[in-house]
């Protein structure tokens, strides 16, 4: 089986360790190693035949029974190329390597195309609403007047959330952008510069991180110990406490349908649980982090992932 991720991915390490204990052959590499250190040879003969080689290790394409598409890097082009040539080579490398690999008849956790589809938050919210998971009232706009009108109509706290990850600073370092409470007086015309997501604040007793692996559900309550973590628990991990929890049947049915609609076998979902005990969907990350949840709760997520990948493997 293949594992595609960075060399320093400690979360993927947990799964690889489980697979090693099961004596499942693992071929691990990062896309940043292609084409300098990784060699692809693929010929179309009733499907792609050939191999991927990285150093002294090699995997035959026809024998790749499963693939864990964790968090591989961007393609890195070496050598003295011009900017245009570097962009061309990167595009060719991405299309060639990933184009061959995603066409293989194997289990993907998750297929890169399905990850991409499910990463569109407006689409997530649409499906979540359709399957009864009750997401908050949401506005997506680049219109300042529409934003101000939405805040007025909600007549209560409104939060701002990014639509696609965080920000990248001037040094190229990615940084997260936590959820924040909207100051109505701060809704100026700069809203017109890009799309923004505004949501009603749902009164919450706590949140839940639900990790789904195949048909197994691993849910943990997240309780915030201060105001900053109550708004967004990512603000202060040290202020959090956790408790394993069962998933209500109606939520489970909705999540199963959501996963099926997007073709996912893995997902990390966030819910708000109101003081009345109602679960309200916030979002799904089709390639979300889960290692810290396993560490603090003991939930056997890596074991489930290894079992899923082993079950899809034919080698």
UniProtKB/TrEMBL annotation:
- An example Gene Ontology biological process: SOS response
Residues crossing the lipid bilayer are: none
Where in the numbering of this chain does the ATP-grasp domain appear? 125-310
GO MF annotation list: ATP binding; metal ion binding; ribosomal S6-glutamic acid ligase activity
Q: Which domain of life is it from?
A: Bacteria
Keyword annotations from UniProtKB, A to Z: ATP-binding, Nucleotide-binding
Supply the Pfam families for this chain.
Answer: ATPgraspMvdD (PF21068)
Q: Could you state one GO cellular component term attached to this entry?
A: cytoplasm
Which InterPro entries does this UniProt record tie to the protein? ATP-grasp, GRASP_SAV_5884, MvdD-like_ATPgrasp
Q: By its UniProt entry, which NCBIfam families does this protein fall under?
A: GRASP_SAV_5884
- The protein depicted here goes by the name ATP-grasp ribosomal peptide maturase
Instruction: Please give the organism.
Output: Jiangella asiatica
